[in-house]
Q: What sequence folds into this?
């Protein structure tokens, strides 16, 4: 008999909590991701947040997916506020770099003026639900098979990074045929009721 042990070591437990809410969990469907996490260490100015799906799983589209489909919000205690972003980082704007394909990633380089403090909640929106998305924009394409798939979420300054491996479940879609829930005849009454 064989025994198989599966484990992985988190090299940095500085991401205290994380969640990933997706809009569609069906195979080969476009899905928007809302990744929310809290890091216990600060991300300095010119630091980064990077979302990297495992090779061959999710596909980052090359068409109808650009910097308008990525947004970062930060909550330091008074609600989530969006950070300005564009294609390259500056003193005021974060820079968004997208590497499309099944071995791609999405990286946001923070502006050179303002970092993200420790214990702040960070929300990374990916897909067509960002504030600047258009009606033709897309999300990330889910894997072709069902199962549990992972991605690496990293934040830091290139020297000291925090990371967590996120998991997404891809399920067959559920379909319910149209049924008639209206009765054409009144129900049968019995026992005087």
A:
């Amino acid at each position: 008999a064989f025994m198989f042990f599966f484990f992985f070591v988190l090299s940095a437990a500085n991401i205290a909590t994380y969640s990933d809410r997706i809009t569609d969990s069906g195979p080969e469907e476009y899905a928007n991701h809302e990744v929310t996490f809290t890091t216990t260490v600060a991300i300095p100015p010119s630091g980064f947040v990077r979302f990297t799906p495992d090779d061959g799983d999710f596909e980052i589209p090359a068409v109808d997916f650009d910097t308008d489909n990525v947004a970062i919000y930060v909550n330091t205690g008074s609600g989530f506020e969006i950070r300005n972003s564009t294609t390259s980082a500056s003193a005021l704007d974060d820079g968004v770099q997208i590497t499309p394909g099944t071995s791609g990633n999405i990286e946001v380089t923070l502006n050179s003026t303002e970092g993200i403090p420790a214990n702040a909640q960070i929300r990374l929106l990916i897909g067509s639900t960002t504030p600047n998305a258009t009606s033709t924009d897309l999300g990330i394409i889910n894997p072709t098979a069902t199962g549990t798939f992972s991605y690496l979420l990293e934040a830091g300054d290139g020297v000291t990074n925090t990371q967590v491996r996120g998991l997404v479940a891809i399920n067959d879609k559920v379909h319910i045929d149209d049924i008639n829930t209206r009765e054409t005849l009144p129900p049968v009454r019995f026992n005087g009721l």
Observations:
- The longest strand covers residues 147-156.
